[in-house]
Design brief:
138 residues, globular
Length: 138
């Protein structure tokens, strides 16, 4: 089975925990992505932010995206995968945590992102179908 390092999108852009949600949204639009890692001033991963987070946790709550810092949406320890973990571990982690994107860590360094689309391209239909079922079941 391929490893995270083999199927990930390398060198992901980050949004700093001190940047606003408006900054994050602009960067997502520029990069044509729906999620970005949140990185701290210590270059450590603080979490992930999605376009849905911006809408549901800020705009829908009446909070202005220019006034909310990305770090405010980073909750708890981020779910990650090791760079040398295999696809079975990626699938299990995505299922267990109900996530479609996983930051890939090598030591303490963020080296990539594995998205559901990366997994779909790398694996046969059955494991990907099982993952989709797990992610879309209530």
């Amino acid at each position: 089975m391929p490893t995270a390092r083999e199927i990930m999108t390398p060198q992901p852009d980050c949004v700093a925990e001190t940047e606003t949600l408006a900054d994050a949204a602009r960067r997502m639009a520029e990069l044509d992505v729906g999620a970005l890692p949140i990185c701290g001033s210590d270059d450590r991963l603080k979490g992930m932010i999605t376009d849905r987070d911006i809408v549901v946790k800020a705009i829908a709550q009446g909070r202005a995206p220019g006034d909310v810092r990305a770090g405010e949406l980073a909750q708890g320890k981020p779910v990650t995968i090791g760079a040398d973990d295999d696809a079975a571990e990626i699938l299990q982690t995505m299922k267990t945590h109900q996530v479609r994107r996983l930051p890939v860590i090598d030591g303490h360094d963020l080296v990539g992102i594995v998205a559901l689309a990366d997994v779909a391209r790398a694996l046969s239909d059955q494991p990907v179908g099982d993952l989709l079922d797990a992610l879309t079941s209530p």
